[in-house]
Each structure stands twice: as structure tokens, then as C-alpha cells.
Amino acid sequence: MSEAKPFRNRLNDLTPKDWLKFQKSWFIHNPPPRRKEVRRHPAKFPESMAQEFIEFFTKPGQMVFDPMAGTGSTLVASLRASRHAIGVELSPVYTEVARQLIQEETAKLGPPADGLRCEVITGDAARLEAINLPTMDYVLTSPPYWDMLHARGAQAQRSRRSSNDLDVTYSDDPADLGNVSDYGEFLDRLVEIYASLRPLLRPKAYLTIIVKNVKKGGRVYPLAWDLGMRLGGTYTLKDEKIWCQDDIRLAPYGLGNAWVSNTFHHYCLQFRWEP
Ligand SMILES: C[S@@+](CC[C@H](N)C(=O)[O-])C[C@H]1O[C@@H](n2cnc3c(N)ncnc32)[C@H](O)[C@@H]1O
């Protein structure tokens, strides 16, 4: 009788059981309470969630990249997963917070994390050619959700406005894509940034882009779907994994009058560079 072939895993170091768990096309992840330093950033994703993606799409020692790193969730998660990581972030304020968190995390983890390259650079993701970057094994990132942070009505924004310590928008820099009011221009510029990553990627590397469709002025702008369509010309769109949050209070939008959802899900779009 022939022996069963040993499980050979080229992508990551997960067991078949953990691999299977990650394959479900949706998941619930309620972000843990945020630390004071990162609360000022209007829209970060949780490190615990980022770590699950990094551990699926890379092996220890590989290089992870986030071109819009915010307060560095991708970088901190990479350290915890023993991967190298580089981030680029436009805002020097968030870059500074990310640096501080990386430093603290490195000290907390000790060896081998202190031997990992983990660095955040203040810069414009639209001008990456100005930065000397190594080959990347994986990209995990999330863009501004168009200019949603400028929306007056959004409930979360209203409570941020009344606090001095919390930013309502990322910055007033014209290079900040969160300040581009025309949807077509925003989409063009974002697609160009993601397409420009291709020469940096190892062939067969994956990119995960976490994004939401955006509601504005009574209609939906399908940002996630538009990105899927537009980037499909550069990378292969593999699928989406839907991140649901079920700890947010429902608001009575349109009650008794019209259909307006409480949107508590994000799309984690999986692309692959398949030359
Ligand atoms: C959704 S947030 C990313 C949050 C990050 N994933 C985290 O967990 O902290 C988007 C980030 O993109 C940054 N950004 C906007 N335009 C940029 C550009 N042209 N180059 C680099 N970063 C940019 C914003 O400052 C913001 O921090």
C-alpha cells in the first residue's frame, strides 16, 4: 500500500486545519478597544486581524509592505508573526505613532523580533520610486474610503468632532487621497498607486486590500467593486473575504421612509501578481 504524501505547504506555515479555517469567505472580528495613541487616527484595522492575513499569505522571515501604513497595524502584526515589514505613510504624525508602537512591540517581543527589519517611512505612496524599497512578498493595506471622513452626517464623525484629541480627517495635504472630492479622480489615483507596486512584488505574491463601498448623497459608490474591476487588469482578482463587525450600535437611518443599511462589513480583496 502506498503511503499518504506528507503535506507540503509552499505558501505559509499553517497546519491543514488552520489553513481550512482561514478559507471561509467571511469572518467576524470585533476590534479590541484601541490604545489612546492610535485612537486619534480615524480608521485603523486591528493588528490581531492583520496577523491572521500575514500568517496565511507569507512564511516567517518574508517581507510585508503597506503603502498607506497609518499607525502601523500591518507592521506591528508582522513583528508578532516574525515577518519583516516596511510601511509608507503620508502623515508624519501617524508615522511617529507607528514608530513608537514598533519600538514598544519590538522591546516586548525580544528575540527574534529585534532582528527583524520593521520600518515606517514618511512619504507619498504615489511617489514610491523616490524610496529605495526591496522586493515584497505580500502587501496588506487599506486606503482612505474616498472622502468619507469629510461627510458631516456620519455618526462616528460627529462624536470625533466634539473631542480635541481625535482627528476627524487624516490631514489637509492635497496628496492625501482622503481629500480628493471627485470620485473618478480618487479612483484613478488609487488604482495608479496599487498598479505601481507591481515591479516591487515577487512573482506570485498576493495583495490584500481592505475596503468598503461608500455611501454618499443617497447612493452607493461601489469602491470595492470598482477596485476589483480596475485592478483586475494588473493583478488577478482571486476573491474577497468579508470582514463583519457585530458590535456596532444600529442607527435608525431612513426609518419608516426609505432603505438605508447599517453597513458593518468591509471587503478584504485578494489579488495575486501572476506574470
Ligand atoms: C485607512 S487608513 C490606513 C490605516 C492603517 N491600516 C492602520 O491600521 O493604521 C489610510 C491611510 O492612508 C494615508 N494616506 C492617504 N493618502 C496617502 C498617500 N498619498 N500616501 C501615503 N499614505 C496616504 C492616510 O494618512 C491614512 O493614514
Topology, element by element:
Layout: H1 16-22, E1 26-28, H2 36-39, H3 47-57, E2 63-66, H4 73-80, E3 84-89, H5 92-109, E4 118-122, E5 136-141, H6 155-161, H7 183-195, E6 201-211, E7 214-216, E8 219-221, H8 223-231, E9 236-244, E10 265-272
Parallel strand pairs: 1-9, 2-3, 2-5, 3-4, 5-6
Antiparallel strand pairs: 6-10, 7-8, 9-10
S-adenosylmethionine binds next to strand 3.
CATH architecture descriptor text: 3-Layer(aba) Sandwich
Fraction in beta strands: 15-25%
General shape: globular
Low-confidence stretches: none
Number of helices: 8
Number of strands: 10
CATH classification class: Alpha Beta
Helix coverage percent of residues? 25-40%
Structural class: alpha/beta
Order of helices and strands: HEHHEHEHEEHHEEEHEE
The gist of it:
The protein has 275 residues and is an alpha/beta fold.
